[in-house]
TrEMBL record:
It comes from the Eukaryota. One of its GO terms (biological process) is cell-cell adhesion. It is a single-pass type I membrane protein. One of its GO terms (molecular function) is integrin binding. It is found in: Membrane. The gene is Itga2b_1. GO terms for cellular component: external side of plasma membrane; integrin complex. It holds the Pfam family Integrin_A_Ig_2. Keywords: Glycoprotein, Integrin, Membrane. This is ITA2B protein.
Length: 172
């Protein structure tokens, strides 16, 4: 009929985390009780696909002790929001009309104006992430003509990087 807050106490029994809630004493015969519980569990990154709760109702009544139990399995889903930010330095580049590409030159300025593209991948959480793959396609040819001459590719922050075979083909 009425709603009451339960007094619950966490403890450890045989290496298992237990939360013990006292529902009432004494209880009237035939009483029906509905209990809604909200549990907050942390550190589930390596737990697998689900976590299992074993719920047990224990009665201390001497004539008919009851130990009814139920198992509840809850799927664990990691959630992380990734955000990709990018810049080009300089933001705008205008190639002079008199500029000519120099075939076979080893000087970078003979292959065009240097533009640096910087991409940052941010995890906005709430979970941690691992094994993330970021693929960036850069158009370097326009038909048979070089559109962008890709000099180098670098990373920061312990990332592994693989690159397209067309990276610096003339070894500038």
């Amino acid at each position: 009929q009425g709603q009451e807050k339960l007094s619950c106490n966490p403890k450890k029994e045989n290496g298992t985390h237990v939360v013990l809630c006292e529902l009432g004493n004494p209880m009237k015969a035939g009483a029906r009780i509905t209990v809604d519980m909200e549990l907050s569990v942390s550190g589930l990154e390596d737990i697998g696909e689900a976590i299992t709760f074993h719920l047990q109702l224990r009665s201390k009544n001497s004539p008919s002790p009851s130990n009814a139990s139920v198992t509840v399995t809850v799927p664990v889903e990691a959630e992380a929001e990734m955000e990709l930010r990018g810049n080009s330095l300089p933001a705008t580049t205008v190639l002079p009309t008199s500029w000519q590409w120099v075939e076979g030159s080893q000087r970078p300025e003979d292959h065009g104006i240097k533009v640096e593209h910087v991409y940052e991948l941010h995890n906005k959480g709430p979970s941690t992430v691992s094994g993330v793959t970021l693929s960036i396609a850069v158009p370097h040819l326009l038909g048979d003509h070089v559109l962008l001459y890709l000099l180098e590719l670098g990373t920061e922050g312990g990332m592994n990087c693989s690159h397209h075979p067309a990276l610096n083909p003339a070894q500038v």
